[in-house]
């Protein structure tokens, strides 16, 4: 009887130890789960605090490579808003493409770092022609885009560019797109360009060259007429004439 009672006490102690061990494990799991929940809450809180704070937004913009176009104009074109746009979400590709569409800008590269500092590097397009319409200076650059310069800030940059005369804005804009396709070595020899329409020939222009020669071209096909070495070859073929009228496949020359 005593032996059976002793055996029962041993079993009871064993069961009690098992229960205590189980309860201890459960408490440990609860503590671990609680710590995990607290950690997740802290992380979420920090993320929310970061995005609410100014540190998550773009902080500064640095512009380089510009001379004719102001930094303010480039930043405005980029549509980047400091202290408003989020560093991780603002697309630099969109800003880059927007800047490339700006007059007198040939190329642009926009980068940012993790601290919200933006760098804009541009390559400006060279002006290749100038035209005054209603007392306002308009400049065409090598991309064929036209810039309206009411303040006259580009005057010093276009002094060596050919002067275009007699154009209204619409014809000048149409002319500019084709003019940009003419080889630079030809453009550099042009002194003045006059809009010189004739009956049934409303696209005719008069090119006055630095050497005194005068070319007549239509602005809708002048890029084709003067492409590559065409101009140099025609001058070699007909060196002693003053007037050259480019019509289709033919060039009519006379003095």
What does the model show?
- It is a single chain.
- The protein has 255 residues and is an alpha/beta fold.
- It contains seven helices and twelve strands.
- The strands form two sheets. It has a nine-stranded mixed beta sheet, covered by helices on one side.
- Helix 2 packs across helix 3 (92-100).
Number of strand elements: 12
Radius of gyration: 38 Å
Elements, N to C (H/E): HEHHEEEEEEHHEEEHHEE
What is the highest CATH level, the class of the largest domain? Alpha Beta
Adjacency order of strands in the biggest sheet: 6-5-4-7-8-9-10-11-12
Overall spatial form: rod-shaped
Determine the structural class based on helices, strands and strand pairing. alpha/beta
Q: Write the CATH fold name of the largest domain.
A: Rossmann fold
Tally the helices: what do you get?
7
Biggest beta-sheet profile: 9 strands, mixed
Quote the average pLDDT.
Answer: 88
Oligomeric composition of the shown chains: single chain
CATH architecture title of the largest domain: 3-Layer(aba) Sandwich
Strand residue content: 25-35%
Count up the domains: 3
Distance between the termini: 144 Å
Unreliable sequence segments: none
What is the helix content?
25-40%
Quick structural gist:
It is built from seven helices and twelve strands.
Which structural traits does this protein have?
rod-shaped; 7 helices; Ubiquitin-like (UB roll); transmembrane helix; 3 domains; three-stranded mixed sheet; cell division; nine-stranded mixed sheet; 255 residues; alpha/beta; Rossmann fold; POTRA_FtsQ_type; single chain; cell cycle; membrane; 27% strand
């Amino acid at each position: 009887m005593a032996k059976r009672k002793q055996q029962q006490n041993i079993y009871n102690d064993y069961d009690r130890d098992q229960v205590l061990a189980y309860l201890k494990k459960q408490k440990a799991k609860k503590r671990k789960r609680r710590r995990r929940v607290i950690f997740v809450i802290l992380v979420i809180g920090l993320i929310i605090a970061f995005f609410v704070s100014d540190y998550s937004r773009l902080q500064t913009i640095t512009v380089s490579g510009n001379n004719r176009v102001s930094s303010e104009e480039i930043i405005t074109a980029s549509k980047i808003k400091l202290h408003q746009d989020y560093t991780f979400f603002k697309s630099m590709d969109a800003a880059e493409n927007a800047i490339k569409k700006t007059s007198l800008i040939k190329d642009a590269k926009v980068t940012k770092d993790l601290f919200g500092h933006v760098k804009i590097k541009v390559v400006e397009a060279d002006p290749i022609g100038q035209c005054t319409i209603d007392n306002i200076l308009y400049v065409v650059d090598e991309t064929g885009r036209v810039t309206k310069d009411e303040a006259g800030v580009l005057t010093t940059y276009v002094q060596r560019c050919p002067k275009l005369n007699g154009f209204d804005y619409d014809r000048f804009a149409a002319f500019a797109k084709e003019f940009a396709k003419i080889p630079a070595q030809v453009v550099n020899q042009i002194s003045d360009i006059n809009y010189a329409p004739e009956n049934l020939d409303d696209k005719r222009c008069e090119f006055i060259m630095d050497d005194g020669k005068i070319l007549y071209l239509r602005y809708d096909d002048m890029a084709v007429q003067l492409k590559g070495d065409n101009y140099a070859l025609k001058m070699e073929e007909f060196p002693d004439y003053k007037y050259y009228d480019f019509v289709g496949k033919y060039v009519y020359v006379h003095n």
